[in-house]
Design a protein that fits this description.
The protein is α+β, with helices and mostly antiparallel strands. The protein has two domains: about 230 residues, 3-Layer(aba) Sandwich (Rossmann fold), CATH 3.40.50; about 120 residues, no CATH class. It has nine helices and 25 strands. Helix 6 links the parallel strand 7 and strand 8.
């Protein structure tokens, strides 16, 4: 296992980058703690795979350094970094059996036969392929091959880090849950440093100790799932995490009050009088309909999703969502919305303001 440090790291695929937009990975300083499990979360093209390939040594950064336990490995080849990487699409040896594929990384490092057999059996159980151990990989389904690829990444116990680049893309949904559970169990047992790249928030939030959210080539927040949900540091995090995402509403903030078109709503903290583009952000779960208090809204439609209902409404021209429990009827007179002050965030130019105790 290793502590991974990114020191003033940036990367551009252009020969002479000049603007932030020229960078696939904007300058960042980041430290991945030894033995923790991280998820790199963001949409396609945000820089996740670029960052993972720099860590693994498949790509040299345009600037900055990468260190493992304080040792500069920026120019070290992948083989010297002692990492295991599992890619989005399966990489297996078709002429080998499943057993031989799983054993290959261990045999390549000269491990004894008994240890190899023990680890192969354990990993085969993890990925649910005990019955296929003596089958050749050629002819197996894509998801079976990806399980082999995943197992080969997990078979070594002595790696500095395990890197996963959207490894469950071709796996069926039921098996995804099982494999994520196995990955978490593996992490708890061996405390490998794990970095898991995904665009799926469910995968990220259920797998990782901490989630690193990326947007447009930069890291916009690192936090626990609860922190990302309750206190998004950037409006993109609020939008990307949660279903539906956070409501963002233009506002003029004075002290502990947010003034919106149609009225005002109290805040739990004081913010002075911030300038620039100011918005409040509130999760649909922390909004409720009322007949007597709050801000006027127009209800556009109600979506029943089984566990709860999602009310789609408009607040003075701004679309918002409200999560309502199943059961209680939504009366015709419920045309106002109330926000829980303790869960209203204030943003200036997309970044969250901390505020002071009111």
């Amino acid at each position: 296992m290793a502590r991974i440090t990114l020191d003033d790291l940036a990367h551009s695929y252009l020969p002479d980058p000049k603007r932030d937009e020229d960078y696939a990975l904007r300058p960042l300083n980041l430290e991945w703690a030894d033995g923790e499990a991280y998820a790199l979360l963001g949409p396609s093209g945000c820089g996740k795979s670029t960052l993972l390939n720099i860590i693994s040594g498949l790509l040299r950064p345009s600037r900055g350094r990468i260190l493992f336990d304080g040792q500069d490995v920026t120019d070290a080849p992948t083989a010297e970094r002692n990492i295991a990487q599992v890619f989005q699409f399966p990489v297996v040896y078709d002429t080998m059996t499943v057993r031989e594929n799983l054993a290959f990384p261990l045999k390549n490092r000269g491990r004894d036969r008994a240890y190899v057999a023990s680890r192969v059996a354990a990993v085969a159980e993890m990925i649910g392929m005990e019955a296929e151990l003596d089958r050749r990989a050629q002819g197996l389904t894509a998801d079976a091959k990806q399980k082999i690829s995943l197992g080969r990444g997990m078979v070594r116990e002595d790696v500095n880090a395990l890197l996963f680049d959207e490894p469950l893309t071709v796996i069926d949904p039921h098996m995804k849950w099982r494999l994520r559970t196995q990955l978490k169990s593996l992490h708890h047992e061996f405390r490998h440093t794990m970095i898991y790249v995904t665009h799926d928030q469910t995968e990220a939030l259920t797998f990782a100790d901490k989630v690193v959210v990326m947007h447009a080539g930069q890291v916009v927040q690192i936090g626990t799932p609860q922190e990302l949900f309750e206190r998004p540091a950037h409006t993109f995090v609020g939008y990307f995490i949660g279903s539906p995402g956070m409501n963002l509403i233009p506002a003029r903030v004075e002290g502990a009050t947010a003034h919106l078109d149609g009225g005002a709503t109290p805040l739990a903290r004081g913010y002075g009088a911030p300038s620039g583009r100011v918005e409040i952000g509130v999760r649909p779960e922390f909004a409720r309909l009322s007949a007597t208090e709050g801000l006027p809204v127009r209800i556009d439609r109600v979506e029943d999703v089984g566990r709860h209902r999602i009310v789609r409404a408009t607040l003075e021209g701004t679309p918002i969502s409200i999560v309502m429990p199943e059961g209680p009827p939504i009366g015709a007179d419920m045309t106002r919305v109330v926000f829980d002050p303790a869960h209203v965030n204030v943003y200036r130019d997309d970044w969250r303001l901390e505020g002071e105790a009111a």
